[in-house]
Amino acid sequence: MLLKSSKINEFRLWGLVLILVGMGVMILGTAGIVFWGQTGKVFAGIFMVIGMIALLISVGIYFWAGMLSTSAVMLICPECGRQTKILGRTDRCMYCKTILTLDAQNATHGLDEQIQAESAAPAKQDAPSSQG
Ligand SMILES: [Zn+2]
Q1: Is 57 in the same domain as 99?
Q2: What local confidence, expressed as pLDDT, does residue 131 receive?
């Protein structure tokens, strides 16, 4: 977990990043034709392939996230009262980032001390702005 987000949101983020990278690489490759002419076409071909691979991977990630979200557990977050999904035994709420767990053993102990300290903090500054 690189980000303080739910797993589904994180999958979507990485899919988006890969799409942007793939498109950027393809644009760079196309720009190579403009700058270098005939030799640039070789680079363009290589960059196109790399970009295509990145796009295919991102599609795979989106597909995987879709598959995972169908098997996710839907529940009402006890913290913010919205309906959210959790993947696996422990995940964060998609809206308020509160750590939710299905495992009764973790319910009072949290994942680790750092996360426990985070969730214990009273600040709610990372609440999403899309509440309207
Ligand atoms: Zn919540």
Answers
A1: no
A2: 45
- Going from the Cα of 80 to the center of ligand 1, the distance in angstroms, rounded, reads 4
Give per-residue pLDDT as tens, 66-123: 787 777 888 888 888 888 888 878 888 888 888 888 776 666 555 554 455 555 555 5
Nearest residue to 79 via CA among 101, 98, 103, 106: 98
Q: How far is the CA of 72 from the centre of ligand 1 (A)?
A: 15
Q: What is the pLDDT of residues 8-63, one digit of tens each?
A: 788 888 888 888 888 888 888 888 788 887 877 887 888 888 888 888 988 888 88
| Domain-located, residue 131 | no
How many domains in the chain?
2
- Calpha distance 27→49 (Å, rounded): 12
Q: Are 93 and 84 within 8 A, CB to CB?
A: yes
Beta bridge partners of 37: none
Q: Give residue 45 CA to ligand 1 midpoint distance, Å.
A: 46
Interval between CA 15 and ligand 1 midpoint (Å): 24
Please tell me whether residues 17 and 66 are part of one structural domain.
yes
CA of 117 to the centre of ligand 1 (A): 17
83 is in which domain, residue-wise? Answer: 73-120
43 lies in the same domain as 99: no
